[in-house]
Amino acid sequence: VGHDIARARGGRRNWTNTAYITKGLNRLMATKSFDEMGWGHVHKKMVEPKRRKVFLTLKDAEHESHLLFLNN
Fold it and tell me: Which of 20, 33, 51, 65 shows its CA 20 to 30 Å from the CA of 42?
């Protein structure tokens, strides 16, 4: 996931400021925006996924660290 406006330049960490790009292109961009890179056509922004409620019980805990996330 690449940020259109880099976080170092005040870009926000939200779904409307991101797009799917490769890790190599993300490194190549550094702190430039898509427009500055000549990639103005890259506007297929990510869509925020639907949030789902997840309910866990003590018997779902497979590791001791899972207990930190369960209400006892």
Answer: 51
